[in-house]
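Morning F.,

Quick status update on the modeling queue. The single chain you submitted on Monday has been processed. Sequence for confirmation:
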Amino acid sequence: MSADIEQRKADHLDLCATDEVAFRQRTTLLECVRLVHQSLPETSFDSIDTRVRLLGKELRAPLLIAAMTGGHARAAEINQALASIADELGYAFGLGSQRAMQKRPETSWTYQVRRHAPDALLFGNVGVVQARDLSTEEIAEMLAKVGADALCVHMNPAMELVQPEGDRDFSRGLETFQRLWAELGVPVIAKETGSGISREVAARLRAIGIRHADTSGAGGTSWVGVETLRADADGRALGEALWDWGVPTAASVRYCVEAGMTTIATGGIRTGMDVARAIALGASCAGIARNVYQAFLEGGVDGARSFLQRIERELRSIMLLCGAKTIEELQQAPRVVSGELRDWIA
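Structure tokens below.
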């Protein structure tokens, strides 16, 4: 099992280096959000304030380098380099699933980024199925080892069904969230893994006290697709059928915001326009994973940093053109919602 986990993490990195794992027909539906141009913004570009307070820490811009990897030697280099960029630019940073760390404690070093990112808002990560079978004390110890400020508890039933070695029992998930919220002592973030959070799940999570969500909606990386490319014949057939399964990112953002949750928009965020549209739908922050990883592979630390700075410049420019001086004003900016997204949120 331990060897399988390490190989799976390596496979994930190899596959996410390409665009082969993108959704095929499903989009994020962020393109259905039109922001309204304001010819008299009555501010200057240099006065645009992108700061946002998230989970008790201030970010210089509402950006997260989203959960990606851990559990093997290549992951350490990626995590350390990208976490250092997050720290430098004032963003948040998310670790990949710590399941490998729990199964093989000797891989803990691949997740340890604090000396490279002493001030960054750092998210730990564990699957709800694994969390169900771990004590709160064991999870707290995992977080302490990496110095995490909060815990993402990821939900991934579609991915697991296709994964050759995946879980099949998804019972007691809500109970697990409730226990961690009551006992863990750090913020708990309900996170999907590419299939989005429905209106019903958002409402159920908020009803038991969960206040934070990471949408990871459909339209970006298909983690069903990732596992399909790793699967045997039976799993591949199922994966092909479910490749585009999920709630689009834009709809998932609205559902979580309507439920009263602080919402991080992830899943297919590629541009500053995507970030701005997600924030206009009510998100507090937006996260990017695969595109940052690809920029890092192509250009190292400088390439990843330049990519993220371009995203931030686009966001600031769009805020100016919307007449929004702050992130709070962008959340309230006039917008037009059309097409399929209007149907999803009706």
